[in-house]
Amino acid sequence: MGEALSEVCxxxxxxxxxxxxGNIGPRIGNWxxxxxxxxWIDNVEPTDQHAVSYxxxxxxxxxxxxxxxxxxxxxxxxxxxxxxxxxxxxxxxxGAWAAFTTLLDLRYPPGPNYSPTSDDLFPIxxxxxxxxxxxxxxxxxxxxxxxxxxxxxxxxxxTTVTLAVINSNSGPVPLPLPAGSSSPVASISTPxxxxxxGSTSGSFNIQTTKATPPTKTRTATIVAVAVETKYALLTVxx
Length: 238
Fold this sequence. Notes:
Blueprint: H1 2-13, H2 15-18, H3 29-32, H4 51-67, H5 72-77, H6 83-91, H7 96-107, E1 129-135, E2 139-140, E3 144-151, E4 159-167, E5 186-188, E6 192-195, E7 201-208, E8 217-226, E9 228-237
Parallel strand pairs: 2-9
Antiparallel strand pairs: 1-3, 3-7, 4-6, 4-8, 5-7, 8-9
Helix pairs in contact: 1-4
């Protein structure tokens, strides 16, 4: 915790000596590029030599500052024995790790190798989805359709939308979406959709199946998640 705070203060107070070429620069990559990412919010590493732990701490401190809006003074003076306790002292809530990673994973899902130009990944825009549309819909069995995710406004950085297709009678959609979400009615071309900075929409391919034996009508639910969730019911006619 102390090393994470020290690094954040160094970058905030002396950015010219922190980020330019020739200096160490962003220090969060070891943690950000771990898969899975270890939880150093509830747990504490007692030295200042563990780059993965203090990388996690740095990202979390910036989350408190630039996503939740707390001042550095409050973050420091209300610090607890762990970063999770600091979150509770500031917000009055528990569940720091879940709140933090649920938001972060939408923009920076574990798996890809990221090369951030800054330790500060926030703010991450929330409440950005406007609609999820399918065309054609209905569609014949075995034929393709296309999904289009539209945002409320253009995003300032590349934004990841998580996608899935599930059986329409499977009840509430579990979040986070399970890996390999699928339906015998249709499949999607990719589990995530990246909407580029400056854009307001993005599209993905959907492939339907033929029923054996043929049935009159089948349905599947297409899901798009970027903090909030949008659903679209795809109807497949035989």
